[in-house]
Amino acid sequence: MSTTVSRTPKTIRSAMSRSTPSTVTVFGQDLVAMLGTVNLGDFAYLELFKRLPDERESTLFNALVVTLVEHGVTPSAIAARMTYLGAPESLQGAVASGILGLGNTFVGTIEGAAKICQERLPQSGADRISADERMSDEQINALAEGIVAEYSTDKRMIPGLGHPVHKPVDPRAQKLLRLGRELGFDDSSSRLVEALSRIASERSGRVLPVNATGAIGALASTLGVPAHVARGLGVMARAIGLVGHLLEEKADPIATTVWNRIEAEVSES
Amino acid sequence: MSTTVSRTPKTIRSAMSRSTPSTVTVFGQDLVAMLGTVNLGDFAYLELFKRLPDERESTLFNALVVTLVEHGVTPSAIAARMTYLGAPESLQGAVASGILGLGNTFVGTIEGAAKICQERLPQSGADRISADERMSDEQINALAEGIVAEYSTDKRMIPGLGHPVHKPVDPRAQKLLRLGRELGFDDSSSRLVEALSRIASERSGRVLPVNATGAIGALASTLGVPAHVARGLGVMARAIGLVGHLLEEKADPIATTVWNRIEAEVSES
Amino acid sequence: MSTTVSRTPKTIRSAMSRSTPSTVTVFGQDLVAMLGTVNLGDFAYLELFKRLPDERESTLFNALVVTLVEHGVTPSAIAARMTYLGAPESLQGAVASGILGLGNTFVGTIEGAAKICQERLPQSGADRISADERMSDEQINALAEGIVAEYSTDKRMIPGLGHPVHKPVDPRAQKLLRLGRELGFDDSSSRLVEALSRIASERSGRVLPVNATGAIGALASTLGVPAHVARGLGVMARAIGLVGHLLEEKADPIATTVWNRIEAEVSES
Amino acid sequence: MSTTVSRTPKTIRSAMSRSTPSTVTVFGQDLVAMLGTVNLGDFAYLELFKRLPDERESTLFNALVVTLVEHGVTPSAIAARMTYLGAPESLQGAVASGILGLGNTFVGTIEGAAKICQERLPQSGADRISADERMSDEQINALAEGIVAEYSTDKRMIPGLGHPVHKPVDPRAQKLLRLGRELGFDDSSSRLVEALSRIASERSGRVLPVNATGAIGALASTLGVPAHVARGLGVMARAIGLVGHLLEEKADPIATTVWNRIEAEVSES
After folding, report:
1. CB D229 within 8 A of CB C94
2. Is the pLDDT of residue A205 over 80?
3. Domain topology for D108-225
């Protein structure tokens, strides 16, 4: 433990932000100059990559996070609305309560899909490989065959595939994957998740489209978002959506009805 | 209580999102069509106002939330980093921990400034009053004189004024207020907070510039964000910034050092 | 702001706990000696009062917090279970999510009842007044008449009165109030909430028994718990109950069913 | 996914609590009868085991959770105090913020130690094995030898061993392990963690006493707390301690000083 202590940095430092009386910089960029020119998604990119995105990175990154903002009355939104009923004085507490459900079950599938792309594809990440280093479709297919077999043996679901409503394709995933290609990004990760979808569907006899989290996991890998940070995309996006849910809850509440119904059913059980 | 129950909606409903196998709509807008064209700030606007912003609303709204993303190693960021040290398995928990500190002390000043604008100015809100209904500078000054006197009597600080570092002006506030004017928005709220700054500075003999939260409170009122939702702007923005802090904490940690130093000092006290 | 800074303590200190290689003390008490002799409620008392309770304080304090542990499938428990569905990797996150709903609406009524007792009764607090300083029943009644009239004028509910199920008496409140008397505590606070219940019931023509939070607010005041900390009793107790709910949720889950039903109803609305 | 849905329970039910106008039961026990006789730790036991503890279970269980309440100004307490500075209106938010840090790094070691006991020892759990089924000291030693070798090969730390301050023994662990024996519980789990400590110390040449979390992991296994719930003991205990920290923070604040110092150091870096 003394070793641990001595290994920790002696100086407390952060490179994120600097202020003088007349300036504020964020990762070396002049904040004041960015106001009015940089949108929220681009600023989120700056927080993750320490630089602003170019135009096509901006388009793809904003599309990925926009996809994650609003998924209707999910468990996360239900938790936030229940919390707001009990503590209306604390909007931040209700949002926090909803964010806490963005874990392994839901947002974790982005992480899972990103992990597959980042661990199995050589040098994944935006354009960091030359065209002739890219895997051919045959290579991608062989890779996908192996992964499907592996998950099948372990009786595990491949993250990022399948959807209860969006069948036979998830229109959000389809759009995001197309967008990545139209913008000219390397599509190795996209081809991998598409191959996984095709092969897993054939093997299982079920309809297993690439879903939104699968596409986001693949394209986040293309942009260079490390897998361990991928769920952060969901967290930042959903914080926005949860504020929207609390606005609706205030105007047209459902929490008391949900509670009353559950309580009535429980007391009869 | 039975009254309470009967007053609650019988039906659980939400107008936020709808899905069919091949479509997703958010507040009636086609989500798939928005991917690649709508940025994250505009989508946040959609969550709050149930419609997309026009171009100048987009510019101003994005500027307001961008201002709130990153304020350095604040108490909120310290809490998030401390939590990440203890629970690295749960990025969402660390972000939630940081969000919980966005309450009355810090983000509440946006709410306070917005409240003053929305309660004291007739028909505040984006362009909802005709030009000849707008208050003259003399009227705004008289209003501000009254508010400063009132707060002075109650020995309360006027929210949105003063800054420990940014003196004699807060460059972020200055930029935001100018941006609102350049975009052609009604500047009644802006004139009010500027008058409050001028009069409060004179009365107190201290330098009390409009600060970032004061400008955001005024301009959020101009855009029509209700005061009770104003802290939601801070929550959604800071969720983004906190993901950035956790990325830095993972790469270049400070939490253990902070903890060791505090513990050492406490044990000597 | 520089004033603020200079007013803050220069030294970081805490009187709560001290460790040497062979000892640990908490508020000056030997922790090791307390293990096996002090129960969890008594230790909670130590955290609040910096000393261990005597026997009757122990009995009453444990009864108060035990009352708050388990209230069935409340909004707080629903939020925790929803969060656990999304993030099963983080039991602490699910408990935190449930705790966040312990705000003004529910646990705040303890605070409200305590506030009435502590602000309206002279020298409230355990036995800190001599017998002949205690208010007579007539004085308590007159005080209660005034409070009921005041709340009625403001159209506010008196905190700690009324219950949807427990009528005409709340058996938990009845037991706690009796326990306080049997243990020989000053019953001024208890007489006050009982008088409020009687007078408010008469005035309104409704059955408004002292409920559990009303009795706890009164008796917490008797023990000397400051009103602003009263909701802390609910927080510490419910953290225990929420762990119980998550155990049940793991063994016999309801969160997915709740979610599916809400989603089905919303999509038909 | 449709399979998932159809496998979920159709009925929403909970066996935890029932209310009639004049009664409340928790796990079938009369709550009113328990007020004044059952302490908070025993009630926590009821939440976990669906029955009240007998006397020796009560003593050991209360000792385990009392050990976890107060560990001084830990990262968890720092997070709670920072959050309270920003949101003093929400005591529950500050406690939640502190609870969120009770994850894999700190409280997770209880889980890790419990897992070793529960996976490696046959039929672990309170007295569920007859005396002649218990492992001999030789068998325990052989088991421990294997575990130490395994962890050493994987270069992993054995959870529950070692402490930066409490050397050569952790007085809390020593007391808890002795208490378990004095109360007559099967000591197989205790012997296992003690053997691990002895062998790991020998192998590594470092002083690696059983620490508090190691002893709690072992004795929680003896009592029959499943490993996946073990961190719940920490969560319920620390919620109590965090309320204590917020009381101290209100009376004698440190958060602003910590923040100012960090900010000053960061801005010089």
Report:
1. no
2. yes
3. Cytochrome p450-Terp; domain 2 (1.10.230)
Does any CB of chain A come closer than 8 Å to the CB of residue B52? no
Rounded to 5 degrees, what angle do the CA atoms B30, B33, B37 make?
Answer: 125
- With contact defined as 3+ CB pairs under 8 Å, the chains touching B are A, C, D
Cβ B111 vs Cβ B160: under 8 Å: no
Contact across the interface for C259 and A75, Cβ inside 8 Å:
yes
For the segment B51-79, what is each residue's pLDDT rounded down to a tens digit?
999 999 999 999 999 999 999 999 999 99
Q: Best of C13, C85, C167 to disrupt the B interface by mutation (most B CBs within 10 Å)?
A: C13
Stretch (H or E) spanning C197: helix C188-204
Task: Please answer whether residues B21 and A169 qualify as being in contact, where contact means their C-beta atoms are separated by less than 8 angstroms.
Answer: no
- Chains touching D (at least 3 CB pairs under 8 A) are A, B, C
* Residue C149 vs residues B36, C84, C158: alpha-carbon distances, Å: 61, 46, 10
Cβ distance A265 to D11 less than 8 Å, yes or no, reads yes
- Cβ burial of D3 (10 Å; 0-12, 13-18, 19+) is exposed
Residue C170 burial by Cβ neighbours in a 10 Å radius (0-12, 13-18, 19+): buried
b/e A49-62 (16+ beta carbons within 10 angstroms → b): bbebbeeebbbbbb
Instruction: State how far residue C135 is from chain A, nearest Cα, in angstroms.
Output: 35
Mean of the per-residue pLDDT values for chain B? 92
pLDDT, tens only, C193-237: 999 999 999 999 999 999 999 999 999 999 999 998 999 999 999
Cα of A133 to nearest chain D Cα, Å: 35
Q: Quick check: pTM over 0.80? A: yes
| Smallest CA–CA distance from D33 into chain C, residue | C175
Query: What would the DSSP string read from start to end of B57-81?
Result: HHHHHHHHHHHHH--SS-HHHHHHH
On whether any CB of chain A is under 8 Å from the CB of D10, the answer is: no
Interface membership of B56 toward A (CB under 8 Å) = no
CB A192 within 8 A of CB A233: no
The answer to whether C262 touches B5, Cβ cutoff 8 Å, is: no
Q: How far apart are the first and last CA of chain A?
A: 52
Distance CA(D261)–CA(D269), nearest Å, equals 12
Residue C74's closest chain A neighbor by CA?
Answer: A259
CB-CB under 8 Å, D171 with C40:
no
Calpha distance A106→A91 (Å, rounded)? 23
Least Cα separation, residue A257 to chain D (angstroms): 15
Q: Chains B and D: how many Cβ contacts under 8 Å?
A: 126
**Average pLDDT estimate for D175-190:** 97
User: What are D206's two structure tokens?
Assistant: 């470092």
Q: Residue B181: how many CB atoms within 10 A of its CB?
A: 12
pLDDT at residue B126, as a whole number: 46
- With a cut of 70, say whether residue A268 has pLDDT above it: yes
CB contact set of C132 (below 8 Å; sequence gap of 6+): none
Inter-chain CB proximity A75 and C85 less than 8 Å? yes
Chain D residues inside the 8 Å CB shell of C92: 99-103, 107, 231, 235
pLDDT in the model for residue A269: 78
Domain boundaries, chain A: 108-225
Q: Which residues of A touch D266 (CB under 8 A)?
A: 12-14
Per the listing, tokens 């490989």 go with A129
C54-269 adopts what CATH topology?
Cytochrome p450-Terp; domain 2 (1.10.230)
Which residues in chain C land under pLDDT 50? 1-7, 126-127
Locus of tokens 């669906």: D50
What pLDDT was estimated at residue C246?
Answer: 97
Q: Could you tell me whether strands C17-20 and B29-30 are parallel, antiparallel, or unpaired per DSSP bridges?
A: unpaired
Provide, as residue numbers in chain D, all residues whose Cβ is less than 8 Å from the Cβ of C87: none
